[in-house]
Amino acid sequence: MKAAVLHAAHQPLTIEDIGLARPKRNEVLVRTAFAGLCHSDLHFMEGLYPYPVPCVLGHESAGVVEAVGEDVTYVQPGDHVVTCLSVFCGACPQCVTGHPNLCENTEVKLMPGMSRRLTWKGEVLHQFMNLSSFAEQMLVHEHAIVKIDPDIPLDRAALVGCGVVTGVMAVFNAARVEPGSTVAVIGCGGIGLSAVNGAALAGAERIIAIDTQPAKLELAREMGATDLVNASNADPVDIVRDLTGGGGVHYAFEAIGSKETAEQSFRMLRPGGLATIIGMIPVGTKIELHGADFLRDRRIQGTSMGGNRFRVDMPRLLNLWRQGRLKLDYLISGRIRLDQINEGFAMLKSGATVRQLIDFA
Ligand SMILES: NC(=O)c1ccc[n+]([C@@H]2O[C@H](COP(=O)([O-])OP(=O)(O)OC[C@H]3O[C@@H](n4cnc5c(N)ncnc54)[C@H](O)[C@@H]3O)[C@@H](O)[C@H]2O)c1
Ligand SMILES: [Zn+2]
Ligand SMILES: [Zn+2]
User: Fold this and answer.
1) Domain Enoyl reductase (ER) spans what residues (predicted)?
2) Residue 257: CB within 6 Å of ligand 1?
3) Which CATH superfamily is domain 163-306 in?
4) What are 116-154's pLDDT values in tens digits?
């Protein structure tokens, strides 16, 4: 089967014929329908985060079950599923205390370099985050998928697999935004726009969207932003302060992954405010905060995919899409073929697109 292989950081992905093992106990073989291009994949392609190579990237996808291994009762061939990298065991301390996204069982959630499901030219090909979605088929643990209703279009469903669940659940699970509060979101790509949408669902009174691309800000308005800030030639912290009568926001979300914008997210908080860093700040980069700002109950936190419980959250989100309240349609910038993946990532890097989906049909 065909897959896009990363041989080394800073090199284009190449389309290769790769091998896939048969489903073992608790494993499911999925025919990929759509896979989204997320900025997290790009961070690995650019060497900002390490991963064993060669590997097949991709972690935001939906597809159809083709075969199941021994003991799998959750799905059967023909079922439609969304994948998630938050593989859970259901029994470790994190899982049983309500944090399955932080599962500590490394026999279920394999550490980088441990999967032996893929091969290329007879050698080990590393599986990215237990998924590797930039491939025509995926062999995954049954706890890496959620079953969805067959009438849901698989392109919309794929988006929920990373960007949407992360952005929306950062608002609900990580920050717990309250109705009537003020929210700022820095970065309006797939994750940031989903956080804007989540803030609207949470009943935030003001939702200030910040980006450097006017087209992204217009999309943010469609997702529910009340104020748009172009940060290309102005300090967004000053503008957010002006917009909030000098006080700052209750909740800020950083959805880019840079030192500068992470620091901005904390600086734009009012006393008692909470900044949530969603973006992947490059390994080794430190962020600097003024210690005195902590005296007035300001907080800052990270989030692993919005603290999701994806088997519950993803079907709920897709129902909200059915009702028109989750605006997935605005996130799709285009559909591409697998062999257009490098051009697709160049577009993502330029800031021109939100989500491009590889269509495997
Ligand atoms: N924490 C998690 O679990 C998790 C999950 C998924 C993605 N992420 C991370 O979230 C981040 C966003 O991912 P994405 O796919 O939405 O990326 P993206 O590239 O689609 O979006 C980033 C947006 O930021 C804007 N931007 C860039 N520099 C800016 C600046 N200085 N000020 C304001 N706006 C600026 C761009 O125009 C773009 O619209 C990435 O770092 C990704 O790795 C984290
Ligand atoms: Zn992602
Ligand atoms: Zn666990």
Assistant:
1) 8-358
2) yes
3) NAD(P)-binding Rossmann-like Domain (3.40.50.720)
4) 999 999 999 999 999 999 999 999 999 999 999 999 999
